[in-house]
Every structure is written in structure tokens, then in C-alpha cells.
Specification:
single chain; alpha+beta; Beta-lactamase; 5-stranded antiparallel beta sheet; 8 strands; 18% strand
Length: 279
Amino acid sequence: MAGDSRAIDLPALDPRMRWSLSVLDAGDGRVLASHTPDVVCETASVGKVFLLIEVARRLESGELDPDQRIQIPDEHRVADSGLLYRMRDQRVTVADAALLVGAVSDNLATNALLWLCGLDEVRAVAPALGFANTSLHDYIRNERTPDLPWTPSYGTGAELAELMRRLGVGDVISRAVSDRVLDWLAADTDTSMVADSLLLDPLAHVEPEYQGMVLRHKTGSTSFARIDIGHLTGPAASVAYAVAANWKDSDDDLRAPALDAMHAIGEQLRRYVTGSARS
């Protein structure tokens, strides 16, 4: 990118954290920026994208009916992230459950869809797409004890950015499947990370919004992690990105420096895809 006035310059990244970061040209896959992109991080809710891919595939093939009502086994009832656990009528349709996962990373809807599709079947999605170090790994749990799988999902910046690039070009199973997943991700309300600097309306950015940008993304958060993966299009360029930060082994809560770096990266992406300075 030498000599390109729109080059993506990464900020200083706090060395107390494990980082895995990659930014790609969304068309040809060219690497625009990276930092330890092959390091595996815990990715919290980001692995739910693989669940959405499997649900979209089954809807397209007719294996699932979009109007089928979900069931929620008692052993998989969870709270925290999402809205469904607070709703009076929790037997929403499969299509609406997937939308809840895309919009608010709904844990209860995730577990219901994961139980419907089967954990082993969803675990197989990532390797079937060619990803060796990235996957959804387990149900969402109220408590993760030592006898349970070590994380709900994991991945690398390189593979997660490539996943978003392939979704953007319609190369995840099919154009129809990719478009379904992107449509669910269009509703994501969490713009606190990389997307913060895009200045989009957090609740209404399905259509082109500020400076003509279109964002499709998924985030993940835990007490020791922040992850944001996305596909961002503007009038000048399109990028696919993944930024993962983990600080599990730190005695400090490092979310502030993690988010500061993510915001700085987001500003670089905004300038790159719009071809403009901040205004």
C-alpha cells in the first residue's frame, strides 16, 4: 500500500493483549493490514455466524421452514445477551430467531437454533468451508466449568476476515445463503467496537448510511475479550475485516485500550472506503 493516500495504518496495539487482526480488500482478497493474523483467539459470540450459515443453508434447501416455531430445552436456557429471554412469547419462528441472533447476538435464540440444527453439524460448518482454526465450538452457557468445551467459539483474524470477504462475494455455500446471512447481520446493533468510528446509526443501518457506507458485521464480548468482524462498503472501496483482542491472562480489565485501538482501526477503515478525511 506504499504511496496510497488511503492506506490503512494500524495504531499501536497494547502488547498485554493477544491480538489477531486482518483487513482485506473485499473484492480480490488482497491484505491491506494485518497483525499476528494466524493467532487463535477466543471469539465469544462471533462463532454464531457459522450457526447462521447452517440455518440459512437449511432454509434455502427446504430442510427448515422459516415459519417453524423454535423450542428451547430447559438445559439450554440462558440470559444476558439478547432479548428473547425477556420476551413473554419465546416460541418465535426460525427466521425471527436468526434475526435476533444477527441483531442482538441473542443467546437464547442461539441455543434454540443450535439444538435444532445439532452441535456437531454446526461445528462441521467451518471446516467444510476450509477454515482450520476457526469455528463455533459449543452452546452458550451460564457458567463454563472445566468439564465443558473451553470456549463457545474461537478463530483467527485471517480466517474470519476471509469468511466476511466470501460472504460479501456470495461464496459461502451459495449467493442465496450468503445473502441471508448478510441480511441478518445488517441488523447488528452493537457498533461499540470497530464500527464505532463509522458513525452509523446503531439501530438503522440496513441501507447505505453515513457517507454512503454499508456495514454487515458481528461482534463478540466477554470480560476478557472484544472481537469485531465485518464487511464494509463505501463509495471508494470495500473491505472485509476481523479484529480480535483477548486479555484472559491479565490481572487487569483491558477493554479500554482494546476499544481505543478498535476505534482507531475503524477510523482508518472509514477513510479508506469513503476516500475522505473525517468531516
